[in-house]
Amino acid sequence: MSVERHIAGMLQQIARQQDIVEIAPQGSTPKAAALAHVAEQYGYTYGTAYRTGFKNSLVQVRMYRDPQPDARVREAATITAHPQAGNGGSVPGLEQGALKPLPEAAGAVAVLKDLITFDVMAMYVADRTQKVLVYFACAVLTVLLLIDGSPVEAVASGGAVALLSTVAFKVGAIRREKIARRLTDAGFLAVRDEQGGQRFLRPGQQLPGHTDPFAA
Questions:
Q1: What is the DSSP secondary-structure string of 104-161?
Q2: 128-135 contacts: CB < 8 A, separation 24 or more?
Q3: Mean pLDDT in each 10-residue stretch from start to end of the chain (216 residues)?
Q4: For the chain, how far is it from start to end, CA to CA, in angstroms?
C-alpha cells in the first residue's frame, strides 16, 4: 500500500470522528509510529499495539479520540494548517510523500515507536507458566527422540532447543527493560492492566476503555 493510501485511509477514519482509529501499516513499527504521530495531531492519543494478521505480520495500533479540550484545539489547528492531507498535500510531522518524520517530530515519533514496540513485545515475553510449558515440551521432545534414536542425540537435541528458548526469553526481557527505562526517562508512568501486563501512560492518562482512554 502506498504512503498516500495509508494516510488517506487513516484520515478517513479520523474524519468520521471515530472513537477508535486502527493503524496497520504492513508490520513496520517505524511506519506505525509515524502514522500514530499524525493521528495525535488530529486529536487522538495512543492506546495499544499488538501483532495480527497472517503469521502475525501486521503491527496493529489502536488510537483513541482524546476528549481533552487541548486535543480539539490541536485538531483544529492541524486541519487549518494541512487542508490537503491525504490528497497529496502536506501531512503534520512527516516529509512530503513519505512516512518519515520531520526533524521537529523525530523525538515524538521515537517515543511512540518505543510504546508500540513495548506493547507488541508483550506477546513474546514469557511468564512463568509459558516457560514451564516450553521446557516441558523440550522434555517431551527428548523422550520421543530417545524412543527413536540414540540417547546422545536425544539429549543434545532437547538441550539445544531448551538453550535457544532460554536465550530468546532473556534477550526479549533485556530489550523490553531498556525500552521501559527510556519511557520512564521520557516521563511516562508504569502501570499494570487488568491482565497484569505492564503498560506505560502519560501523566494524567488512564488505561484505555472502550472509547475513552481517560475514563476511570
A1: GGHHHHHHHHHHHHHHHGGGGS--HHHHHHHHHHHHHHHHHHHHHS-HHHHHHHHHHH
A2: 131/169, 134/162, 134/165, 135/162, 135/165
A3: 82 90 83 95 93 78 91 95 90 91 96 94 62 60 67 63 61 83 93 84 73 46
A4: 38
Contact by Cβ (8 Å): 23, 35: yes
pTM of the model: 0.77
Q: If we measure between CA atoms, which residue out of 143, 144, 138, 109 comes closest to residue 39?
A: 109
SS3 of residue 61 by DSSP = strand
Helix-then-strand count for the chain, H and E: 6, 5
Residue 174 grid coordinates: 533485556
Q: What is the pLDDT of residues 28-37, one digit of tens each?
A: 899 999 999 9
Q: Contact, 214 vs 67, CB < 8 A?
A: yes
